[in-house]
Amino acid sequence: MSINQLGIVKRNIVRADKSAVEKLARFGVATVHEAMGRVGLMKTYMRPIYAGAHACGTAVTVLMHPGDNWMMHVVAEQIQPGDVVVAAVTSECTDGFFGDLLATSFRARGAKGLVIDGGVRDVKDLTAMQFPVFSKAVSAKGTIKATLGSVNIPVVCAGALVNPGDVILADDDGVVVVPAASARQAAEAAGARESNEADKRTKLASGVLGLDMYKMREGLERAGLKYID
User: Fold this and answer.
1) What is the pLDDT of residue 191?
2) How many other CB atoms are found less than 10 A from the CB of residue 137?
3) Rounded to the nearest 5°, which phi and psi values hold at 59?
4) CA of 49: how far to CAs of 99, 115, 142, in Å?
5) Residue 3 and residue 145 in contact, taking contact as beta carbons nearer than 8 Å
6) pLDDT tens-digit readout, 168-183
7) Radius of gyration over alpha carbons of the chain, in Å?
8) Which of 64, 93, 98, 144 is the most exposed place for a label (fewest CB within 10 A)?
9) Hey, is 213 helix, strand or coil?
10) pLDDT at 3
11) Residue 212, class by beta-carbon neighbours within 10 Å (0-12 exposed, 13-18 middle, 19+ buried)?
């Protein structure tokens, strides 16, 4: 990050194709991650604040400084319906940057959720609101409003590069980033993988073993596996 990327708000960004986002929303994170060639995952510490949380939308990014959520109020103005806010911090911090009041503001703007490499609070209220949040931590510790960050610049959130307009898909399995330019391709690949898995699921449910379906027996024999009665 260069110093000239601080203190700016980009108001016009190119968002991923809406139909591709809608298609990706039908799939789970694991399916999309695998379909893209096992790329795009955020670090495993990013967890939903309540079980069953799901979010899929286009990224509006925000870069904040430790213990300062000033830019969260700035990013709210840039949210369009269908967006997921992706919040990164310039250095590690688990303070509670976000709570139910900001969630109320984000939802009024049409946000589908928040992904933040930091802490959040008011979990009971956020759960009651069913506002999807995926965070690094939960912390009651408050923040100040004093230091400029930026909105809608490329950020690294939980180890993954996120450009404004990319597709963010999050569920109980984690968070995956789909580059806007490859959203359609990823949706098609995920659909093909889902169909293939549905066929396998039917076979497994009928009693077919993975050993036979995946033709593992010969490989296991070559590897030296022996059955003893």
Assistant:
1) 95
2) 18
3) -80, 130
4) 12, 11, 18
5) no
6) 999 999 999 999 999 9
7) 20
8) 144
9) helix
10) 47
11) exposed
Locate 8 and state its tokens.
């700016």
Residues of the chain with pLDDT under 70: 1-4
pLDDT recorded at residue 179: 98
Residue 124 backbone dihedrals phi, psi, to 5 degrees? -60, -45
- Strands 113-120, 133-138: pairing is parallel
- Among 144, 176, 148, 152, smallest CA distance to 55 is for 176
CA distance 102 to 96: 12
Tell me the CA distances in angstroms from 100 to 123, 124, 157, one per residue in order: 8, 9, 22
d(CA 205, CA 42): 32
What is the sign, positive or negative, of the torsion defined by CA atoms of 92, 94, 97, 100?
positive
